[in-house]
Amino acid sequence: MATSSAWKLDDHPKLPKGKTIALIVLDGWGESAPDQYNCIHNAPTPAMDSLKQGAPDTWTLIKAHGTAVGLPSEDDMGNSEVGHNALGAGRIFAQGAKLCDLALASGKIFEGEGFKYVSESFDTHTLHLVGLLSDGGVHSRLDQLQLLIKGSAERGAKRIRVHILTDGRDVLDGSSVGFVETLEADLSKLRENGVDAQIASGGGRMYVTLDRYENDWEVVKRGWDAQVLGEAPHKFKNAVEAVKTLRKEPGANDQYLPPFVIVDDSGKAVGPIVDGDAVVTFNFRADRMVMHAKALEYEDFDKFDRVRFPKIRYAGMLQYDGELKLPSRYLVSPPEIDRTSGEYLAHNGVSTFACSETVKFGHVTFFWNGNRSGYFNEKLEEYVEIPSDSGISFNVQPKMKALEIGEKARDAILSGKFDQVRVNIPNGDMVGHTGDIEATVVACEAADLAVKMIFDAIEQVKGIYVVTADHGNAEDMVKRDKSGKPALDKEGKLQILTSHTLKPVPIAIGGPGLSQGVRFRKDLETPGLANVAATIMNLHGFVAPDDYEPTLIEVVE
């Protein structure tokens, strides 16, 4: 493929071309203090341990959460999608809440395919909005919901029902009453203007609807029963009364309020979801929406008895799972990422092999390439997907396909056909999400064995390796109190952490092909994942485009 001048990269003045580079992304592999809940520390990981001896010149830490990956605040955990976007794009693009803010402020949200799809129900059916009622900004924001309701009413929604989930986790316990009063005031104004708008059901976020990682489907079922079937143990005439009354129960708090439905004078639920209705889940953060989205979208579903499965027009605020393409419709599209490192390298003749198993294959290809499917240049690229185990939880086979990924990478390196061999090794993340500490230790050991296999191949071809991660997970498997000590639940049991973390991730460079004098710079204030792309381009012998985040390396004479 002829390189147009727009794609031509300048040669690096000090670094040669032609070295084989192995680029390894360890999924869910952060850096944290060693203790019994740090599965990476507790696993035998000699390959990864050996790299730390190169600190600070060839081993360092970079940021993988918050603003470093385009998320709004430093309290936002990174995830695999935004992590691989940043790693591949070399620049930081707005993600999550930020993306929704921009779409709402510009009105673009109401012009997109997702909104057009749900709005087809406005004339004759109800628009249902389901999500966390809070201004915490971690999973959702009240002001975004308000703009969504206003914009929908202005664009023809005649009947609106809101299914609220109270917070008390990202905001103060008890603040739910104020949020409900604010929402009720907005809906009351709409009713004055002829729109039939009201709250239809509710419950606490930890007890109703918002479970994650398939931890407890009963949580989702309680929400389904209230929102879809119009059934709940508590019935009220209005939501303010509901929340105030339920909060008076002994031990009650916002997070764990039981499910309730709002009923009319005859005792009938005011807003069950029925055939022909539109449903929008307005959380922007994905983890606590995926299970609910499966229940709303999957025809083939066996997690609980849905009793009935209404034919609805459903869209998420965003797509919550890029791997599962779930939901299939969404109001805000992923960022438009252009000129990724993969595209530049293809235009400059760099041949690439990319591989992972099914659960992360899309990350090392689609998300790496800026949310883009397929090859940039079929003659120069080969992508290999190894089928993941299915029908079992990942802690049952914690080694997953790490060794198979290692073998494929080794063979690709030794073949001499590829300038870059890129892999994602998913074990730390996928097994970490199960909360099984022993299995996660086994998972980390397997990942390290795969790394060693790749290092050995790089040694043989006198190449270069770069090892990093997309976010933390396996390095801290316990929830912690404000002082950093492991947190206990009401029964005094340890609270296991199954989510990602806010920890930095390691990056290391090495191999016999690494030019003398190459080391990590000390002058970058808070380098993050987006700095990796320019670094890789340099190691391939090129200077990165001017608008890329700066390279992590320098060459000292």
Automatic annotation (TrEMBL):
List of catalytic residues: S80
Top-level division of the source organism's lineage: Eukaryota
Residues reported to bind Mn(2+) 2: D27, S80, D470, H471
First-tier enzyme category under EC: isomerase
List of residues binding substrate: H139, R169, D170, R205, R212, R285, A286, D287, R288, K360
This protein's record includes keyword Cytoplasm: yes
Gene Ontology CC terms, in alphabetical order: cytoplasm
Keyword Hydrolase: no
InterPro entries: Alkaline_phosphatase_core_sf, BPG-indep_PGM_N, Metalloenzyme, PGAM_B_sf, Pgm_bpd_ind
UniProt-listed Enzyme Commission number(s): 5.4.2.12
Molecular function via GO: manganese ion binding; phosphoglycerate mutase activity
Gene3D superfamilies given in the database record: Alkaline Phosphatase, subunit A, BPG-independent phosphoglycerate mutase, domain B
Cofactor dependence: Mn(2+)
Keywords, in A-Z order: Cytoplasm, Glycolysis, Isomerase, Manganese, Metal-binding
Binding positions (Mn(2+) 1): D429, H433, H500
Domain Metalloenzyme: 19-542
Cellular localisation: Cytoplasm
UniProt-listed CDD domains: iPGM (cd16010)
Complex and partners: Monomer.
Similarity annotation: Belongs to the BPG-independent phosphoglycerate mutase family.
Protein name: phosphoglycerate mutase (2,3-diphosphoglycerate-independent)
